[in-house]
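Task 17 of the worksheet. Students: predict the tertiary structure of the chain below and write it out as structure tokens. Keep your answer in the requested format; marks are given for formatting as well as content.
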Amino acid sequence: MTRPPTAAQRRIVDAADPVTGRLRGTEAQLAALVKRGLAFRHPRPPRDHFLTPAGHRLREDPGTPGPAGAPGPAGDARASAPAAAGVFAARIGGEEAAEEGPARRREVRSAWQGLLELRRMTRPDGATGLPCAWERTHLVQAAALALEAAGHRPARAEGGGYRVRATPQPEAVAVHEPDPAALRACAATLEEAGWQAGEHTQPRTGVRYVLASPRRT
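Model answer:
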């Protein structure tokens, strides 16, 4: 059985960039995380270290052991897991208390730039136009980040604004917005961000929504 990570290793994992999973530490510390399967070293310069899916699971669920896993792009399947205190989380809509103002806009802009950098670093051609593996395993958060970064307004606990929700379909999220024009604008934003988005109607209620999936090509 793999030994649990040390307290120092846990601190490095917990301090990883919330979007890209980029790690900071000494070469020895990062090499130890790679050996445990919690991190991988990117093959392209500057050859930074990033969390593996096992590393993300360890950070997002403190009770999860850190089994060795194959190095690869960061991400896991907990798209809508609550963020830990102090960790950035995109607004999916419906949050009770949502901070506004310049500080939040800076956080969103930084997170979006970090995501574009992750796209660049995980594609052989360095392009940023298509979603990366992290986005495919964090669909709700990824779609919400694209919307919030473009200036769309997330819904409060009650009232208008977008709401991003998981769906039973693989690699698809639903975006709800009561304003038809705003709903179309959300679809356009996701298309520009590398998603395939189309409007649909709920059969029983007649409510329009957007179904969006990250494009592969």
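Marker's comment: The first strand starts at residue 39 and ends at 41. The mean pLDDT is 82.
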